[in-house]
């Protein structure tokens, strides 16, 4: 019995993507149709599984170039593990910065002012008085130091023990 093939339109509808996305994946050698008939693309179960993997990897932080390397590189297992480790490191940094932002916002909830800037919030006041080049010397906020050190070189920071 012959394997059931889906048209590009059927695959696009099934995966909730545009047909142009499937054509683009073909252009960058990420996904090839199982066959072509009369200039129409047809996809088998194998391509659908590969497309599912592409979406999973993309939803978990891999770029299309990373995915292409993972799926097509002849070095195989070594290469994809290296790529995953690099992405994990990047995600760890994003998590650290997100946690700093969360801590800052939670800290700011203690401010009694209705308007943070015009009300001269006593909680924020100390932090606003610190110029960007002195953020690392601010008396209170390690989160500001973390955000600043991510954006500028650490040589501007004078350690104040927080």
From TrEMBL:
SMART domains with a match to the protein in the record: HTH_MERR (SM00422)
Domain annotation HTH merR-type: ranges: 5-73
Tagged with keyword DNA-binding: yes
Residue ranges that the Swiss-Prot or TrEMBL entry lists as coiled coil: none
Annotated keywords: DNA-binding
Keyword DNA-binding: yes
Stored Pfam families: MerR_1
Protein name (Swiss-Prot/TrEMBL): HTH merR-type domain-containing protein
């Amino acid at each position: 019995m012959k394997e059931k093939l889906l048209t590009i339109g059927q695959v696009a509808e099934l995966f909730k993507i545009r047909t142009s996305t499937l054509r683009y994946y073909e252009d960058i050698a990420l996904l090839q149709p199982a066959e072509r008939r009369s200039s129409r693309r047809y996809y088998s179960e194998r391509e659908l599984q590969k497309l599912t993997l592409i979406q999973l990897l993309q939803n978990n932080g891999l770029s299309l170039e990373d995915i292409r390397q993972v799926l097509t590189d002849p070095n195989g297992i070594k290469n994809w593990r290296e790529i995953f480790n690099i992405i994990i490191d990047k995600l760890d940094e994003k998590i650290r910065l997100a946690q700093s932002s969360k801590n800052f916002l939670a800290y700011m909830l203690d401010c009694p002012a209705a308007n943070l800037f015009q009300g001269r919030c006593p909680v924020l006041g100390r932090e606003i008085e610190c110029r960007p080049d002195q953020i690392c010397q601010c008396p209170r906020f390690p989160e500001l130091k973390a955000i600043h050190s991510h954006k500028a070189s650490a040589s501007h920071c004078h350690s104040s023990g927080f």
